[in-house]
Design a protein that fits this description.
mainly alpha, 1 helix, 0% strand, T_SNARE_dom
Length: 116
């Protein structure tokens, strides 16, 4: 019986060693998973920073687009005013030129009639 008891003890020792090896392997697997979770956490933190920065950039782009639109509308208004002013000034120059030509013509006609 002592032999059988020794066999049982050896069998139990082998089972315990096998179970301890499995436990050790699982603990290593758990540690690897914990490390990978930490790395994924860092990736998500970096991603959150990027998303926040890009959100700010998108807001800035939107603001620049809105400012450009407003400036374009204002520029169009200024161009319309400038075109009207130019046409008005052009008309005034034509009128003044016509008046000066008429005055010169009248004076030159008057000089021709006056005997010297």
């Amino acid at each position: 019986m002592a032999y059988m008891e020794k066999q049982e003890v050896l069998l139990l020792d082998n089972e315990i060693a096998f179970d301890e090896a499995i436990i050790e392997e699982r603990e290593q697997g758990i540690q690897e998973i914990q490390q990978q979770i930490g790395e994924v956490n860092e990736i998500f933190k970096d991603l959150a920073v990027l998303v926040h920065e890009q959100g700010t950039m998108i807001d800035d782009i939107g603001t620049h687009i809105e400012n450009s639109r407003a400036a374009t509308v204002q520029a169009k208004s200024h161009l319309v005013k400038a075109a009207k002013t130019q046409r008005s000034n052009s008309s005034l120059v034509n009128i003044y030129s016509s008046v000066l030509i008429f005055i010169n013509y009248t004076q030159s006609c008057a000089r021709r009639k006056v005997p010297s």
